[in-house]
Amino acid sequence: MDFAFDARTEELRAQLLEFMDSHIYPAEHVFEEQLAERENPWSAPPVVEDLKAEARRRGLWNLFLPGGAGASDAGGHGYGAGLTNLQYAPLAEITGRSPHLAPIALNCAAPDTGNMEVLAMFGTEQQRKQWLQPLLDGEIRSAFAMTEPEVASSDARNISTSIIRDGDEYVINGRKWYITGAMNPNCRIFIVMGKTDPSAEPHRQQSQVLVPRDTPGLTVKRGMKVFGYDDSSHGGHAEVVFDDVRVPAENLLVEEGAGFAIAQARLGPGRIHHCMRSIGIAERAIELMCRRTLARTAFGRPIAEQGVVQDWIAESRVRIEQLRTLVLKTAWLMDTVGNRGAHTEIQAIKIATPATVEWIVDKAIQAHGAGGLSQDFPLAEMWAGIRTLRFADGPDEVHKRSLAHRELKKYREAR
Amino acid sequence: MDFAFDARTEELRAQLLEFMDSHIYPAEHVFEEQLAERENPWSAPPVVEDLKAEARRRGLWNLFLPGGAGASDAGGHGYGAGLTNLQYAPLAEITGRSPHLAPIALNCAAPDTGNMEVLAMFGTEQQRKQWLQPLLDGEIRSAFAMTEPEVASSDARNISTSIIRDGDEYVINGRKWYITGAMNPNCRIFIVMGKTDPSAEPHRQQSQVLVPRDTPGLTVKRGMKVFGYDDSSHGGHAEVVFDDVRVPAENLLVEEGAGFAIAQARLGPGRIHHCMRSIGIAERAIELMCRRTLARTAFGRPIAEQGVVQDWIAESRVRIEQLRTLVLKTAWLMDTVGNRGAHTEIQAIKIATPATVEWIVDKAIQAHGAGGLSQDFPLAEMWAGIRTLRFADGPDEVHKRSLAHRELKKYREAR
Amino acid sequence: MDFAFDARTEELRAQLLEFMDSHIYPAEHVFEEQLAERENPWSAPPVVEDLKAEARRRGLWNLFLPGGAGASDAGGHGYGAGLTNLQYAPLAEITGRSPHLAPIALNCAAPDTGNMEVLAMFGTEQQRKQWLQPLLDGEIRSAFAMTEPEVASSDARNISTSIIRDGDEYVINGRKWYITGAMNPNCRIFIVMGKTDPSAEPHRQQSQVLVPRDTPGLTVKRGMKVFGYDDSSHGGHAEVVFDDVRVPAENLLVEEGAGFAIAQARLGPGRIHHCMRSIGIAERAIELMCRRTLARTAFGRPIAEQGVVQDWIAESRVRIEQLRTLVLKTAWLMDTVGNRGAHTEIQAIKIATPATVEWIVDKAIQAHGAGGLSQDFPLAEMWAGIRTLRFADGPDEVHKRSLAHRELKKYREAR
Amino acid sequence: MDFAFDARTEELRAQLLEFMDSHIYPAEHVFEEQLAERENPWSAPPVVEDLKAEARRRGLWNLFLPGGAGASDAGGHGYGAGLTNLQYAPLAEITGRSPHLAPIALNCAAPDTGNMEVLAMFGTEQQRKQWLQPLLDGEIRSAFAMTEPEVASSDARNISTSIIRDGDEYVINGRKWYITGAMNPNCRIFIVMGKTDPSAEPHRQQSQVLVPRDTPGLTVKRGMKVFGYDDSSHGGHAEVVFDDVRVPAENLLVEEGAGFAIAQARLGPGRIHHCMRSIGIAERAIELMCRRTLARTAFGRPIAEQGVVQDWIAESRVRIEQLRTLVLKTAWLMDTVGNRGAHTEIQAIKIATPATVEWIVDKAIQAHGAGGLSQDFPLAEMWAGIRTLRFADGPDEVHKRSLAHRELKKYREAR
């Protein structure tokens, strides 16, 4: 057992921290100004492309993707930077400190990361050439269309979008919402989850198909909001209607009935990334809370000297240290025993992260007074983003139920 | 001891409930549509004026203001509907069920209510004629400018805006923010809190002056956000700059040094109103949570049959019943022993209400899945509004400290 | 609506407060000393009888029992002090401040109170003469035997003790535990719940019979503990075995199948009493917390000046004021619309009281340092007693489920 | 970074798990029976000696003590099993599963462990020969006397026991309480903290001296309780009076003024041990909760199928995994950068452990119904033990304040 980062991680951390200081943090205000001046209210400000170019130049690019350029090992698929989950995790944390700029600058932003993983793992050569390569090059963006407004989508059996084979094509009908990134006109490709066979056993009913944005019948209808935010800087969260949308049969991923399994394969790394970035958010919130309460005075002394504020700061540190260590262990488990072997830990961090980070950011807001709610500090928007994680990839309640079943199973079998 | 409403309250409750069903709820969708079509992004949609006219016709008007038209009793000042706090409280709760429409329809919306109270209690005849009467008639709106961006405003001694006597005028310099309602161009009058004498004892340094919107030097600079909401339908929350703003000396309220006392007088009823409306919000959230979870199915049964969801519903009921009963008792205390005698209870409900209602609305959001975050349900916006109450009129932490001091004092003296 | 106590209540409160000061509090140390010197480790110390005599002399006796000596109204049955639940509630709170002495001194201690209620409401003349009268006179004590070690007793259908008719007798077989008071040799009569007809519909399977302590086959086996406490001063919590215990058929209460209904009738007033006494416990804990933290110094100032401690004190006040007001409203509802009409509120206070009071007593313990855990302060024992209320009369979880069902029913029917 | 145990740890874990199954768990009932039959109510039951002999035979002995028999490395002092903190931690967790038997069986029970560490690190050869050796051999037991009834002992400056040099002797006067283990007549040696120089700077006022139990003037007065438990099986928690107690000057540890530093040196490892054992307690509680809820039925299905119970089980798993990983990291830090370098993490686990484990054991109790409170299950006693950790070595509040100061210091310096 050893809790030190390895040399490769330390080296990349140092490079990334330098990049944050020299490029990312200084760009935050530019980004805000450019957001206000955009012509298309759903496009990314131009500073993002500058940052991407610089990050790529520095080799801080596609770090999330396992398997290096020359990798020939089982998990590797030759596209990524060759990092393990455990090596990437502390880098993802650092990008979380500037969540609107750093992940996209490194081409490590959701949902593209998950979509690239899926294409790298499951795409045909043609699919990878057509969609994976421009994603790896940061030229286009992508969306993953699963959640539906009409049903409780946490139960995959509820999915009602239909994908019907008709000759050499699949015909898609349905309505999706909260499709992150899809309002961005540069989001060119949708991976769509739907049902090919409602009569199959529950986890073989779904399939996934690739649907280019400009396919007739696909309408990106409106941006859904999150506590008033439209998240337009990273393509919003669209409601999308599929009305007799036809794609060639070769746009299917893997095979009919593989949709649920593909979705599962996508979740493990995605959760690690989300969790580590969220820890970075929490660290930034703690820093802001400390700085603000040291700088302001009430009732004759700095707010930082109030016992209740110190309690918040200490609790924040106590909670985030526990959480980070478990997330890192989970990354290690995924690397060593695989996603299935890390199932309990993946669910545990999926449940613990939003609860922990939401609490910390709430306290940082409270420590800021009214300013904490405002557009002048990143805290309120951070909070809203974290709050959505209690739903994303299924609500906490579903994961807790599943985790409890597994825990109880130990003793059920033992009887 | 008797927990039944009196006849007058029951009668008004019945009238108001009928008005909610016949006019307010049906107008909610109209309101949303008109919001999207406004020319001035900070003005109220026209349906609001229709509702005001109808409410006034029905006598559901200015119910918040104690002292009837012919009242000659001490507390009365001849303008209001003549209700006690205890009679008004359950009506305020009902308006909270549609928080963007019902309070304004009845001319019972903050911050006008507090401003009208102040003018009725402390205004000169000229001040009342010029500003109170059009407010009572719902013709104009008003703002209360206290919070400042540069200091922790919860400590009144920190207020840095200056109000300096210069001949027959006062000259005001300073910067305020989160001035609710001030983005609305029909907000015609500001009550401004500032310092006339920084060398006086702490609670005699402040004064309040009336500043008409179009006074030179007053700049309404921008709308501050609350999470991602601009709250434009009720005039937003403005940042306002006062740059050598000059008003006649007779615009002063009461006298120099009275600012803190006027602010305190304003808070008691204001808190009761906020608390009761918040309880109405919680009741609406519980209703939405029940309806949604009954209507949706996951894993083979309605979500309402999940044990955890039932726990949320039961806890919500348990908490809200406790809170409501204490708020009503507080209203009764204010009516019978006055604001000072009800100090502990007023602080208690100020602390308890946002914590309780925030928890309930959070659970209702969670029960809605992604929709709970969206613009298609009122829950996320309700949540953001309630969250601000943990700051409004001073953060919880300041009130708790004060309440604890009073509790400890019992035993300090006893020693 | 009126939150003032009526004249009768105020008068009794004054008398009771005087009795607490003059007799109860001074007896607390005597009680502790006598406990250590008892011959029978399960008997009450002699000071208890002195206090009972004095309370009775002062007319502070059997206050819990509705219906005065000459009462002829529906609810009254001619035995009690003639107080309503609303009148008795604030008196019960006061007795809670000295929970081991005051309730028993006034002959208002559980489980005798509930048993006397049941006998007054449902007993035959013979049963009342034989058992109710000596209970009213404080000459004997009694037990209610429902909970069983082998099953989850919160589901009444699980009860496995059998009560079988055999000629002119009933034969009882089964095992009960946590039978409060039964270790006291002066506990002369058991009301036993068991099944007379397992094939009847669920709520008609149970019956209740009176079983004198010295009936052959009844064995009081051992005292069950509560966090290390044996609660010997009020008769402990016994495990009791019924092995072919035979009682005359006329010992049945009401009729076969009435057991569940009798149990329900017993619960409403019992819960009000428990809740009000618990509030008295909380008030005593707050007082102890204030006194201790004012008296002790750490890091250069009284502990009472620590922000976190002030937060505890303020939160305690905020929570207890809400709870008390709802408990009083519940008492009023029971008096005016009956137990059934007050069902939601009775469950709400049953759920809220232990959660609230446990939290407060925990904070008072923490404020005392190690002493808070010890036998030198009443706090740890108070805490243990309150903790049991999360189970007593059914665990919180069962009550929440039932409360949620009722809440959901409003909307189920409305669809 | 690597989260796998090393080979030595795996080997010892296997041996210890085998010993738990073959000897410890089967002895639990024997232990309970022997407790009831003891002559001296404060002595350990004979089965404890049997287990000690067997453990020693198997080499499972003094595992807690760093530095092996032949160790010559910096940290080692030649007495222990030569394990690092990281190697010992998972073994301590396992012993926590049977907290009254396993730690003592392995001669790894507090407070002897800390006392042996202190003697090994700071004792003279004579002190080590006289007291350390019989402790290492498990022949005697020991106590650490620091907490005082009259002052808030969390502030070391408050300590009022005096240690005055008088010729070749030290004279000790004062009163201590909650001196764990001291009721056991075989507790032969006390390490006593007191003040030698009240005029020195705060952290140099205290000294520690060795006081044999039979020194005249030392009176072990009574056993303090924890909730209702006297913890007699491991020597209770004594109140001890020192009345002109005289010991030879060579009984001083290190030098005058070193008391605070010695106490600090003692705390790091002590906290790791407590935390890991507590995690073992939590794991046992989770197991009991699962087994009980699978075995009992209410309302037609096993209690384990209730959503709320599953929520408890899942939350327990989520929390304990985070906590354990951080405790292990803290052990690693202590081994690699020392106690001072691990200061934040040591405080973090000191704060997090009782909060987490108390919550889990509370839920396990609730899942057991009344039995959870009783002497028939270990849960209530486990809970009481864990509850004391929120005070032991200083209350949470003091540690949080200190931790917050360190966090704020980062930004204070940066300004």
From TrEMBL, chains A, B, C, D:
* Stretches assigned to the Acyl-CoA oxidase/dehydrogenase middle domain: 143-245
Q: What GO cellular-component annotations does this UniProt entry give? A: cytoplasm
| GO terms (BP aspect) | fatty acid beta-oxidation using acyl-CoA dehydrogenase
Q: MF terms per GO, please?
A: acyl-CoA dehydrogenase activity; flavin adenine dinucleotide binding
Family matches, as Pfam families: Acyl-CoA_dh_1, Acyl-CoA_dh_M, Acyl-CoA_dh_N
Residue span(s) of domain Acyl-CoA dehydrogenase/oxidase C-terminal = 257-406
Specify the Acyl-CoA dehydrogenase/oxidase N-terminal domain's residue ranges: 9-139
Name its co-factor(s).
FAD
The entry's keywords? FAD, Flavoprotein, Oxidoreductase
Q: Which domain of life is it from?
A: Bacteria
Similarity field: Belongs to the acyl-CoA dehydrogenase family.
Q: How does it assemble?
A: Homodimer.
PANTHER family assigned to the protein according to its UniProt record, in alphabetical order: ACYL-COA DEHYDROGENASE FAMILY MEMBER 11 (PTHR48083:SF13), MEDIUM-CHAIN SPECIFIC ACYL-COA DEHYDROGENASE, MITOCHONDRIAL-RELATED (PTHR48083)
Identify this protein by name.
Acyl-CoA dehydrogenase
What phylogenetic lineage does the species belong to? Answer: Bacteria, Bacillati, Actinomycetota, Actinomycetes, Pseudonocardiales
